């Protein structure tokens, strides 16, 4: 069965779609009331609110799908601000011609990811538009900032360590491989970072800030941090973790893992004294087995990101300009 | 002798000032990515040559491509790098936003499936590159012939390395030695540079693209200069044979013939282009005579001098101001391999 315009009419077909699909997989005490707005209990903690949209093609890929990605992407944003995710909303824009069974797989996957992340989908919406079988998801995520004490000031100091939780570029390389019909074993790293982040935050380690390394990649995010903190950041090329298969993929296509998107990687800046502590937590966690300290804040009177290369040379790392397009030769 | 010693010796070079040209854009990228310039002594400069195919493609070519892309029932297929190259008025990317049918391809062979299943559409492939990429297009023509596919055309801006090197040697004596391109040399062979080395007394080192390969090539050229030699040293024997790839060369020759070609910023160089031979001209999309010569651009862009190694990118008045990777005016800013683009991304501007 395919989605058609009637599924968005608000009539019987819409009701059936909601009953047979969305309610089946996403039900909870808030959603089942079917009211115009969800009424939610508050908390003594400050709220963190985020929104995100997911427009990925293909809808399914090795290591995940758009449903899992929507949950992980949203909760990761909350975790990065020290908030434990509680509630999500999900708006689905379906293009006519979308395969019903594919939609069901995506919703089931989204439901599973939400359960694993400990969040409830408390409000939702569905629209059908003309098109060619596409699917887009918009989310909002609400969390309680239980853990942000150590990140309040947001200042970084010379000597602070920059830690990443593992190999860079897998998601980007995986999606490109799918689009280009290249057969390889590269999987998306799409993951809920919550369990690892929670352990770090609960350890009492001095965490200055955390950022998930999504669009724009590590290079762009380091530049954003350097600019906002007026910091000179130096990373070491040999310490940046990249899966050998992803590295080869990048070399063939002229891509740089520093600028590639990830969906299960984050960067954590800690005080020098807690560098080892955070590394140990991560390396003992399934989400951070290949975690590395990749560099340090050198000083805070000049904004720049440099890489010390394998040969001992130095170069500037700039932000990503435009699209990361494959090279010609 | 280990790499560390070689790097140290290069850094300690104190002889006469030297200018080496790395011809190929991928070498330029490797030099910047690995911070090699930060390891060089003040007396040694690396100049980036005309080896980025995107950079040297004229505006007239882009306009021609857009002309095709705007035709009904016509699709222009291109590599991603070409999207942002400025034509006289638009880039392909801008034309696409205005409704032109432009699609990014990853391999020219994608067209076989597309053209086969959409016989009412005409597919025009933007074929840009040096000797390395030409055999791919030869193979494509062969397959078009075999499968009797008539709705595919090639808009070519194919260039040959040797005439360009000859041009540089004959017009610009400031370059002391050359790091010869790795990829193109796999096709041409290292012997192809022998006459240039002899005629112009310039040493050549054929190198691969890893940081180590480039460093060793620089070291080799310093040593050749110190000893007054002008030989061709093949430092990439795992991929480059002295005689080159004969099969590939024959394939090129079967389908393509030399002709004059316009290099953006440089001008027309005799015999530096490759065009489809007469029996295959039915596949050509109007590639002949695409030159910007008539339009001596009013722009202040100095890409031509950058490509010839006469100035550094930051000596151009537009560099980093009117011309940045986000709003590229000159072709060298467009490509990830373009000298200005690399210079902008990797060098110390701030």
Write the layout of secondary structure elements.
The complex is a heterodimer of chains A (329) and B (350).
Chain A: H1 12-26, E1 47-54, E2 60-61, E3 64-65, H2 66-80, E4 84-95, H3 100-117, E5 120-129, E6 135-144, E7 161-164, H4 170-180, H5 194-202, E8 207-212, H6 217-229, E9 232-236, H7 244-253, E10 266-270, H8 275-283, E11 292-299, E12 304-308, E13 314-316
Parallel strand pairs in A: 4-5, 9-12
Antiparallel strand pairs in A: 1-6, 2-3, 4-6, 7-10, 7-11, 8-10, 9-11, 12-13
Helix pairs in contact in A: 1-3, 2-3
Chain B: H1 3-11, E1 18-24, H2 25-33, E2 44-51, H3 59-69, E3 74-78, H4 92-97, E4 102-104, H5 110-117, E5 122-129, H6 134-146, E6 152-159, H7 161-171, E7 177-180, H8 182-188, H9 194-200, E8 204-206, H10 211-226, E9 232-234, H11 246-255, E10 256-263, E11 267-276, H12 303-307, H13 331-334, H14 339-346
Helix pairs in contact in B: 1-10, 2-14, 6-11
What do these coordinates show?
- The complex is a heterodimer of chains A (329) and B (350).
- The N and C termini of chain A lie far apart (44 Å).
- Chain A contains 8 helices and 13 strands.
- Helix content of chain A is 30%, strand content 24%.
- Chain A is α+β, with helices and mostly antiparallel strands.
- Chain A has 2 domains: 5-146, 60s Ribosomal Protein L30, Chain: A (2-Layer Sandwich); 152-316, Phosphoribosyl-aminoimidazole Synthetase, Chain A, domain 2 (Alpha-Beta Complex).
- The model of chain A has no long low-confidence stretch (mean pLDDT 92).
- Chain B has 2 domains: 1-291, Rossmann fold (3-Layer(aba) Sandwich), CATH 3.40.50.11740; 303-345, no CATH class.
- Helices cover 35% and strands 19% of the residues of chain B.
- In chain B, the strands form 2 sheets. In chain B, strands 4-3-5-6-11-10 form a 6-stranded mixed sheet, with helices on both faces. A 5-stranded parallel sheet of chain B has the order 2-1-7-8-9.
- In chain B, strand 1, helix 2 and strand 2 form a beta-alpha-beta unit.
- The longest helix of chain B has 16 residues, at 211-226.
- Chain B is globular and about 65 Å long.
- The model of chain B has no long low-confidence stretch (mean pLDDT 90).
- Classes of the chains: A alpha+beta (329), B alpha/beta (350).
- The A-B interface holds A 180, 254, 256, 303-304, 307-316, 318, 321-323, 325-329 and B 3, 7, 26, 29, 32-39, 53-54, 79-84, 104, 106, 128-130, 132-133, 183, 211-212, 215, 324-326, 335-337, 344-350.
